[in-house]
């Protein structure tokens, strides 16, 4: 009898905790609505990938106990997706060449299971949807050296409202329901903010006789640390290289001007295509 009373008391405490959590969510939504009103008045975007990454990293750093970090992050990603939709309409365009390809899973895992999504058979169609505004965010495949029509070339313009790379998926570490090993990039019409732990993507145009080793040397001399030479594509009489750079890189970064000012530089043009907070590793979310 005493054990049953003790069990009932524990359940009552859990009910109170549930109500406290629910009340906090309601209050959070009210605050987000106020923030959304302010952002709209200032023409600010609802999406803040850097802010979202900082929230998740902070939660992981303070977490303790037996409740899984991965589940904690899953809960918050669902909440973040719903909160963003309170600020402004959120529609995700997703590359899905065939069912079961994994990209739709990545999109739902990051932006919310109930966030409206539209699927497209080609990466170029996703880029166009984001550029035209019919999709807020686009999920596209990681660039590859063998791509016949690289989608990232469409981002090599000077217009301020061109889509930019804003995230790398999955952000919360590998796991079931996260594309089954597939990685992707997210694009949107906004400029990424720095978090202190970022990667940037730079498109570089060079003459065709420029080797990757030469390009790495030129980037390094300007203070730009390439972490990955992602892809190279021939465009007429020039080569277009996609390079991942360590850290946050803004379009007006002095290092870009320094690179262009080098004597006998092979770089004809360099355009920042965006960047992303570095995703969490399996070790970051391990119990």
Explain what the structure shows.
By secondary structure, the chain is α+β, with helices and mostly antiparallel strands. It has a domain at 198-276: ACT domain (Alpha-Beta Plaits, 2-Layer Sandwich). The chain has helices at residues 2-42, 49-62, 69-87, 103-111, 123-132, 212-221, 254-260; strands spanning 92-95, 117-120, 137-141, 164-169, 184-188, 198-206, 226-235, 238-246, 269-277. The strands form two sheets. It has a five-stranded mixed sheet, with helices on both faces. Helix 1 (2-42) packs across helix 3 and helix 2 (49-62) runs antiparallel to helix 3. The longest helix is centred in the N-terminal third of the chain and has 41 residues, at 2-42. It is elongated and about 85 Å long. The model has no long low-confidence stretch (mean pLDDT 92).
Question: If classified by CATH, what would the architecture of the domain at 198-276 be?
Answer: 2-Layer Sandwich
Q: In this structure, how is the largest beta sheet organized?
A: 5 strands, mixed
> Which stretches are poorly predicted, pLDDT < 50 over at least 5 residues?
none
SSE string: HHHEHEHEEEEHEEHE
Q: Give the class-level CATH name of the domain at 198-276.
A: Alpha Beta
Principal-axes shape call: elongated
Mean pLDDT: 92
Category from helices, strands and their pairing: alpha+beta
Bin the helical content: 25-40%
Q: Identify the CATH homologous superfamily of the domain at 198-276.
A: ACT domain
- Annotation, overall tally of beta strands: 9
Work out the radius of gyration: 22 Å
Indicate the proportion of strand residues. Answer: 15-25%
Give the number of helices: 7
N→C terminal distance: 37 Å
**CATH level-3 fold name of the domain at 198-276:** Alpha-Beta Plaits
Strand order of the largest sheet: 2-1-3-5-4
